[in-house]
Amino acid sequence: MSMHNSLFERILSLEESLLQPAVRSSPAALAELLADDFIEFGSSGKIYSQQQLVDLLPHETEVAYSLYDFQVRELAPAVVLATYRTTRTTAGGRQKSHALRSSIWGRTDGRWRLLFHQGTPTTA
Questions:
Q1: Residue 3: in which H helix or E strand, if any?
Q2: Which residue of 54, 65, 85, 121 is 20 to 30 Å from 96, comparing CA positions?
């Protein structure tokens, strides 16, 4: 596997993990993945810090995410931009919402951590 494919697979795996209920409900797992100075511009229009998400996500109501159109672009050594789309479905499939998403990941001490994330609502 080439370095590019390896990087693509690693970042995809990290993004997918952040959409999993087991990770979203674990303050320790979230703190490991989100950089200390992490910031998110949420699809809700709210701005979140690492600590706010660590406090908020474990109490999130049950939702499922589908991720597609995933791309990775290396911005600098050890810094990448991931872009993709998601469909968010509430428990029982009652409500769906769609978003364009972008994340900036940085690698420090051999570990990738999320520095920035933005979700932009879309109609599909």
A1: helix 3-18
A2: 54
Domain over 3-122 is classified CATH 2.160.20.10: no
Could you read off the pLDDT of 57-101 as tens digits, one per residue? 988 887 889 999 999 999 999 999 999 999 999 877 778 899 999
The reported pTM is 0.91
Question: What are the backbone dihedrals phi and psi of residue 45, each rounded to the nearest 5 degrees, phi first?
Answer: 95, -5
DSSP assignment of 4-61, as one string?
HHHHHHHHHHHHHHHTSHHHHT-HHHHHHHEEEEEEEE-TTS-EEEHHHHHHHGGGPP
